[in-house]
């Protein structure tokens, strides 16, 4: 067979999740945007099959191999694409891809000649083991927008689904791909869109979601996965590297919250945000003169998430553990307890609706997008942060010094934590130390890090239970629940 010549290029794009509930109206909404009016619109139906080995060797090496089918049933056409995935977890991505037309629906080794595949798989063992993993089928509506400074962006609305065996997951997203110009043009375009539509930065590609659907994790809460730091990294690079993952944990759980009532999604969204805030304090020297943008527009969302989490903890965790002790065979008390549980459940439902209403506000997407843009700018800052003269040799020393200082503060505060206010401050410090150790672990002395981590975890857990009981009492009092139950909870706390 004649060797096929592939087209190698760097794909630079920004992804935004859109609400599935509004899918039918999204195209008309986009078409009315001033920034897209007058731009040529194209529509195409795309069917894509992703290939990998049964043990997912390509996924492990952050590679993607896709066969895309388009055209009519009588005259189908196929394009094979190999991508080297971006290791950064962000809605903004840069990755190399090799794309070439192929004669059929199966992978072509000839089409991989100009890619790194031959070095990766010189004996064709991996290629011969390839099999279909999952498919994506969607309608793509695209606009090509020419802007300032010779920029050209393709704005694509993708609506469809991912399919693995008999499982399906919706696709409802915007892909903004940079064809010409600088990445700043992508964020400017996304800002125009986010100002009028409810968007959330989307860090998972369709391929990543396909793999997650196949292994059953796509709809599960997204937990922390701090990337490994090395002592060769600069302070600013390390900060941006970690903060991207933390912000992604927050936004990924927000995307899932649009279609799920699972309490753990709320919890993990808040964990992602708290980790992000804690790392901002930790890495403050990295952005002297490059301050993060305001997230004031997120305050209503964060407030509702906090209130919902307090209700969820009371309903799911705190109060069930105390039910038997309160009722103790007394039918009257059992009835009062059940009435209290119903009151709390209805309050949680109302607060969950408030979270969804807030997520539908364009200002939330604009604020999140500003943070993504700031992190991309931060990672390219040429000057190291203040107080770190030789970042290549000082990152490890800086990390150990910061954690030792935070541990000293925690130890000192915990010795005098006799009031609820001081206990709350100790609990916050314990969280900051725990998050810091999790993030900086590869740079820390293992013995000290393990000991400090255990201390922080123990303190957080012990103080957390007392706080949860007291918080439940405060919630119930605000909801007008039977005073006898409130008195019981305060007795437990005492």
Description:
The chain has 494 residues and is an alpha+beta fold. It has 2 domains: 7-218, Hypothetical Protein Pfu-838710-001; 284-493, no CATH class. Helices cover 49% and strands 20% of the residues. It contains 16 helices and 9 strands. An 8-stranded antiparallel barrel has the order 1-5-4-3-2-6-7-8, surrounded by 4 helices.
For the largest beta-sheet, the strand count, sense and barrel status come to: 8 strands, antiparallel, barrel
Following the backbone from N to C, one meets helices and strands in this order, namely EHEHEEEHHEEEHEHHHHHHHHHHH
Total number of distinct structural domains = 2
The secondary-structure class comes to alpha+beta
Q: How many angstroms does the end-to-end distance come to? A: 81 Å
- Rounded to an integer in angstroms, the radius of gyration calculated over CA atoms is 26 Å
Strand content: 15-25%
Shape: globular
CATH architectural category of the largest domain: Beta Barrel
| CATH homologous superfamily title of the largest domain | Hypothetical Protein Pfu-838710-001
What spatial order of strands do you see in the largest sheet?
Answer: 1-5-4-3-2-6-7-8
| Uncertain regions spanning at least 5 consecutive residues | 383-393
The counted number of beta strands is 9
SS field, number of helical segments: 16
CATH fold-level label of the largest domain: Hypothetical Protein Pfu-838710-001
CATH class of the largest domain: Mainly Beta
The chain-level mean pLDDT equals 92
């Amino acid at each position: 067979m004649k060797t096929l010549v592939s087209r190698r290029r760097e794909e630079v794009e920004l992804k935004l999740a859109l609400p599935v509930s509004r899918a039918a109206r999204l195209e008309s909404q986009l078409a009315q945007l001033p920034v897209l009016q007058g731009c040529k619109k194209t529509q195409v139906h795309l069917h894509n099959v992703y290939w990998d080995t049964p043990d997912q060797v390509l996924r492990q090496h952050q590679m993607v191999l896709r066969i895309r089918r388009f055209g009519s049933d009588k005259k189908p056409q196929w394009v094979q694409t190999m991508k080297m995935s971006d290791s950064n977890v962000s809605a903004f991505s840069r990755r190399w891809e090799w794309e070439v037309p192929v004669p059929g629906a199966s992978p072509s080794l000839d089409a991989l000649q100009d890619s790194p595949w031959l070095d990766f798989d010189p004996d064709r063992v991996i290629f011969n083991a390839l099999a279909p993993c999952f498919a994506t089928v969607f309608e793509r509506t695209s606009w090509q927008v020419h802007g300032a400074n010779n920029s050209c962006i393709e704005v694509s609305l993708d609506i469809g689904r991912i399919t693995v065996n008999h499982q399906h997951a919706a696709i409802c997203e915007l892909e903004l791909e940079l064809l010409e110009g600088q990445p700043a043009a992508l964020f400017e375009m996304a800002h125009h869109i986010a100002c009028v539509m409810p968007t959330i930065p989307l860090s998972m590609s369709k391929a990543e979601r396909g793999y997650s659907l196949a292994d059953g994790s796509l709809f599960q809460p997204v937990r922390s996965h701090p990337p490994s730091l090395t002592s060769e990294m600069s302070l600013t690079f390390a900060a941006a590297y970690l903060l991207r993952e933390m912000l992604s944990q927050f936004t990924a759980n927000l995307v899932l919250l649009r279609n799920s009532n699972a309490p753990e999604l709320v919890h993990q969204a808040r964990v992602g945000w708290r980790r992000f805030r804690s790392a901002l304090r930790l890495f403050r020297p990295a952005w002297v003169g490059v301050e993060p943008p305001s997230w004031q527009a997120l305050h209503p969302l964060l407030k509702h998430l906090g209130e919902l989490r307090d209700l969820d903890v009371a309903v799911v965790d705190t109060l069930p553990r105390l039910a038997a002790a309160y009722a103790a065979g007394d039918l009257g008390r059992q009835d009062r307890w059940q009435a209290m549980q119903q009151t709390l459940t209805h309050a949680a439902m109302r607060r969950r609706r408030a979270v969804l209403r807030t997520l539908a506000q364009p200002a939330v997407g604009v604020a999140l997008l500003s943070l993504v843009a700031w992190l991309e700018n931060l990672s390219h800052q040429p000057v190291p942060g203040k107080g770190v003269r030789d970042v290549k040799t000082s990152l490890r020393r800086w990390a150990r010094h910061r954690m030792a200082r935070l541990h000293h503060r925690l130890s000192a505060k915990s010795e005098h934590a006799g009031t609820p206010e001081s206990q709350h401050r100790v609990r916050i410090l314990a969280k900051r130390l725990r998050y810091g150790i999790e993030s900086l672990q590869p740079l820390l002395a293992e013995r000290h890090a393990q000991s400090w981590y255990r201390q922080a975890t123990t303190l957080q857990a012990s103080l957390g239970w007392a706080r949860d009981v007291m918080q439940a009492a405060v919630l119930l009092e605000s909801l007008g629940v039977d005073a006898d139950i409130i008195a019981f909870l305060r007795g437990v706390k005492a």
